[in-house]
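Researcher: I'd like a structural prediction for the single chain below. Treat it as a standalone chain; there are no partners to consider.
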Amino acid sequence: MKVAFIGLGVMGYPMAGYLQKAGHEVTVYNRTAAKAEKWAAEYGGSHAPSPREAAEGAEIVCACVGNDNDVRGIFHGEDGALAGMAAGTIFVDHTTASADLAREIYAAAEEKCVSCLDAPVSGGQAGAENGVLTIMVGGDPEPFAKAEPVIAAYGRAVTLMGEAGAGQLTKMMNQITIAGLLQGLAEALNFGNIAGLDTKKAVEVISKGAAQSWQMENRAITMLDDKFDFGFAVDWMRKDLGICLDEARNNGASLPVTALVDQFYADLQARGGGRWDTSSLIRLLKNDT
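Model: Treating it as a single chain, here is the predicted structure.
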C-alpha cells in the first residue's frame, strides 16, 4: 500500500522503517527535514516537505508526534495532512493524546469522508525498534480492518477497543498502571536494600510469583544499579499522566495514587531528571534515606 508517516522521533523513525521493510511504499515527513532525509537514505523510501504533500495519494496516513497541539499542527491547515487526503483515506494517529482530541479529529475527517483511528502504542522505544508494540485503537471497524494488517508491521498486538477515543482511554489505563507499579517497585527495592537483603536475588524470587510484572523483569536491576539514561523519559510520562488526570477530572474517576506519583515525577524534573527513565522514582527514596 501507499503509506505516509508523519513524525520521526524515537518511536516514529523505526515504525516507519518497518512499514518500508514490509513492502509498502512509504513517504515520510518530519519537522526537521534532515531527519526525514536520513530516514529515506536508510530505508529507501521517500520524504516530503509538508504533511499535506506526504499524505497526497496515500491510502493510509500514520502520525506519531508529541501532544494534542502537535497533532492539530500536522493535521489541519493548508499544509496539513487532511488537506492532502482523498476520500477513503485512513488517518492513524499513534500519538498519546487526549480522547477529546481523537473525537475532534474524527469529526473533522468525517466531513471529508476520511476515516480516523486513534491508535496510541505501548512498548517504548525498544518495542518500536523491535517491531513488537502493543497498539490500542479507537474508531470504526471497517477502516480498522483495512489498517490493521498494515500497522501490524510494527505491532505484535493490535486491538480495536471501541469508538473514537477508546484507544486513548485504554492508553490512559496503561499509564496509570505503570505509574503505580513503578512506585511500588521502587519502594520494594529500597526497602530490600535498607533491610540488608541481597536485593537482586530477592527480585529473582519474587518475580516468579504474584508480584511479577514487565517493570520488574525489565527495570528492577537497572534501578538497583542506578542506571536511568535510557527508556521512557520522565518528561513524557508527566505529559501522559497529565492527560490521565484531566480525563479523570472530566469523568469523575478517582486517581489518588496517580496524582501522587505525578508529583514525584515533578520532583525528579526539578532535580534535572526530565530525561531519565521513569524507573528513576527510586532516586527520590534513596535521597530520603
